């Protein structure tokens, strides 16, 4: 059971037009949880790692004892470490592998490896994530919706992985995070203007999935990952038509298809036939006909094998044009679950606010506010 207390949130008039609103503060039942810093996995350490700064760099051991101090850069052999160390920069920014990160860097021995982690304030993390996931040039209300989705997503990860070594990584496996260089005043303003806001359902942070373009209709997560979620029902999203990835086509050489589907063990691919679709028109199953046999696979598995850049979504049709080429025509980009980013773009262009955008894609959810200090 999660506890709430009510706090007046100022500056959120857009939630209900011109009126101030009361937003419940989310407090997890586990009082040991703190949401001030996100643990971002950057990489596994090599024998020598170099960290740079335009200021001083200080290295502290597990007992918070200063063990090294330098100006400009520090070279460390992480593989010699027996306990975690952390690096702090005088200006709050550390460069690692060509990317500059806010916060501190931690080198953490774990199961015979050494992890390179970025420990960064939650809102500073979001200032990089939002423009990494959505163009900062987009309308402010779309950016605010993205900020709330991203904050909710990472919060849920922090709760679920409290006993793990890290919360998120820097890729689409979690959320794209490209450090200081990606920050932009417009997206940072969206983060600041929604500071602390998350989405909850029955008092629990939601699974705030999002994708680029639904192709006109979002998907039930059961058809992607096997589990239905009350607030993630499939809905029409005609707003997506403005997106440049709404409709697409791809031609794939037979040799490339053979290589992509080699793990099926049915030889050279002779033909591919859609045998079933979900109500959203996304492909549920295909029959793959090969020189050594036939096999049925799920649409999501086919997309994984072919690659997400080639098969932008599972809402597609496919035919063999000739002996050398397969032709694919599709709609949308991404898994299709939750918020459509291009849909939010079009809604914001029609003067919808972030509350209207989010309530359109996540049904029956509420706002809550987290305390990060």
Please count the helical segments: 8
CA gyration radius, whole angstroms: 23 Å
Mean pLDDT equals 91
- How are helices and strands ordered from N to C? EEEEEEEEEEHHHEEEHEHEEEHEEEHHE
Structural class: alpha+beta
Distance between the termini: 22 Å
The count of strands amounts to: 21
The stretches of 5 or more residues where confidence is low (pLDDT under 50) are 1-20
Largest sheet: 8 strands, antiparallel
Beta content:
35-45%
Explain what this protein looks like in three dimensions:
The chain has helices at residues 122-133, 140-160, 185-193, 222-225, 254-260, 299-306, 341-349, 354-361; strands at residues 3-9, 21-27, 37-44, 49-60, 66-76, 85-89, 93-96, 99-102, 104-110, 113-121, 197-201, 204-205, 210-211, 247-253, 269-277, 283-290, 293-298, 316-322, 325-331, 339-340, 366-370. With 373 residues, it is an alpha+beta fold. Strands 3, 4, 5, 6, 7, 8, 9 and 10 form an eight-stranded antiparallel β-sheet that branches. A hairpin with a 2-residue loop joins β7 and β8 (99-102). Residues 1-20 have low confidence and may be disordered.
Based on the model shown, name its key terms.
373 residues, alpha+beta, eight-stranded antiparallel beta sheet, five-stranded mixed beta sheet, 8 helices, disordered N terminus
List the topology elements.
Blueprint: E1 3-9, E2 21-27, E3 37-44, E4 49-60, E5 66-76, E6 85-89, E7 93-96, E8 99-102, E9 104-110, E10 113-121, H1 122-133, H2 140-160, H3 185-193, E11 197-201, E12 204-205, E13 210-211, H4 222-225, E14 247-253, H5 254-260, E15 269-277, E16 283-290, E17 293-298, H6 299-306, E18 316-322, E19 325-331, E20 339-340, H7 341-349, H8 354-361, E21 366-370
Parallel strand pairs: 2-21, 13-20
Antiparallel strand pairs: 1-2, 3-10, 4-5, 4-6, 4-7, 6-9, 7-8, 9-10, 11-12, 11-21, 14-19, 15-16, 16-17, 18-19
Helix pairs in contact: 1-2, 1-3, 2-3, 2-7, 2-8
């Amino acid at each position: 059971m999660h506890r709430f207390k009510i706090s007046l949130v100022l500056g959120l008039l857009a939630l209900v037009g011109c009126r101030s609103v009361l937003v419940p503060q989310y407090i997890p039942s586990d009082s040991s949880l703190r949401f001030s810093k996100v643990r971002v996995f950057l990489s596994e350490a090599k024998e020598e790692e170099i960290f740079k700064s335009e200021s001083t760099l200080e290295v502290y051991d597990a007992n918070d004892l200063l063990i090294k101090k330098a100006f400009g850069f520090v070279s460390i052999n992480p593989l010699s470490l027996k306990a975690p160390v952390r690096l702090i920069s005088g200006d709050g920014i550390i460069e690692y592998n060509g990317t500059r990160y806010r916060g501190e860097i931690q080198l953490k021995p774990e199961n015979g490896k050494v992890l390179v982690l970025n420990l960064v304030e939650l809102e500073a993390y979001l200032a990089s994530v939002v423009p990494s996931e959505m163009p900062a040039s987009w309308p402010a209300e779309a950016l605010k919706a993205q900020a709330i989705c991203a904050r909710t997503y990472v919060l849920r990860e922090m709760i679920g992985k409290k006993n793990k070594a890290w919360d998120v990584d820097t890729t689409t496996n979690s959320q794209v995070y490209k450090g200081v260089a990606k920050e932009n005043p417009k997206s940072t303003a969206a983060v600041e203007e929604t500071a602390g806001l998350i989405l909850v359902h029955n008092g629990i942070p939601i699974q705030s999935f999002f994708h680029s373009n639904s192709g006109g209709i979002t998907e039930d997560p059961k058809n992607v990952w096997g589990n239905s979620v009350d607030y993630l029902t499939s809905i029409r999203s005609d707003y997506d038509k403005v997106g440049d990835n709404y409709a697409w086509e791809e031609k794939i050489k037979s040799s490339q298809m053979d290589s992509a589907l080699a793990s099926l063990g049915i030889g050279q691919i002779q033909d591919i036939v859609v045998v079933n679709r979900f109500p959203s028109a996304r492909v549920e199953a295909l029959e793959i006909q090969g020189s050594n046999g036939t096999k049925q696979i799920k649409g999501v598995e086919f997309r994984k094998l072919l690659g997400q850049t080639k098969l932008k979504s599972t809402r597609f049709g496919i035919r063999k044009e000739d002996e050398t080429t397969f032709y694919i025509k599709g709609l949308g980009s991404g898994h299709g679950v939750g918020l459509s980013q291009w849909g939010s773009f079009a809604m914001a262009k029609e003067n919808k606010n972030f509350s209207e955008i989010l309530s359109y894609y996540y049904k029956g959810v509420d706002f809550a506010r987290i305390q990060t200090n």
